[in-house]
Known about the structure:
The structure holds 2 protein chains of 2 kinds.
Chain A: H1 5-27, H2 31-52
Chain B: H1 4-16, E1 22-26, H2 27-32, E2 43-48, H3 60-68, E3 73-74, E4 77-80, E5 83-89, H4 93-100, E6 103-107, E7 110-114, H5 117-127, H6 130-142, H7 147-156
Helix pairs in contact in B: 4-5, 5-6, 5-7
Amino acid sequence: MGDGPSSRGDRVADVFRAKAEWHRRQARLPIKEKVRILLELQRQDHLLLKQHRQLEWWEEPWRIDS
Amino acid sequence: MASLPDVFGVLNEMKAEGVVEDYALGGAMAALFYAEPTRTYDLGVFVILPPSDQPIVTLTPVYAWLRARGFEAHAEHVLIHGVPVQLIPAYNELVEEAITAARNHDYDDVTVRVCPPEHLIALALQAGGGKRRERAHQLLETADIDRALLDEIMSRHGIQGPWSHNG
């Protein structure tokens, strides 16, 4: 018992709080770590984007070290 | 392999040699210094150009300087050490103010000028569009924002904040 609307609501609120906290932690990462994540996002998203539209010549993952 | 400090070094050299009066990173790359990482494929750089007799603002001398160093412009971007850089001449007072107020950040011992987060929010809302509104929201939620300064900038430049309706 105890899984009524209010406890479900609490759980949802906890999930949102945890998500907001995760975003804040990401924002506070050192800039070099953020750039490393950016380069990874570029590589991951590039394949998906390519399947959906014609990309501009510059929409390519950067070939650099962070 | 080149790295971001190499790109920032070219921007600093541009300023030191007077090719531009000043510069500051804007857009998603600038937001990265204050907020969580989001994907972008280009590096937006606002520039204040030196005074000129020409009636039209042109980046031609900047592109020529870059070309002489082996960095070719293709339409709106210049590939600098493998990174597509979009140079955007200051097109209004808010952009000019954002460049002048830019903060010097250190990246691997290379200084890079970055628009302050309050100006990035104001610029994103002024330019409009879903992606930019999202960036403004993200900065508001996760960056250390001086709300009084942001309100003052927004009010001075006549920009309506999406939060105004909720008080």
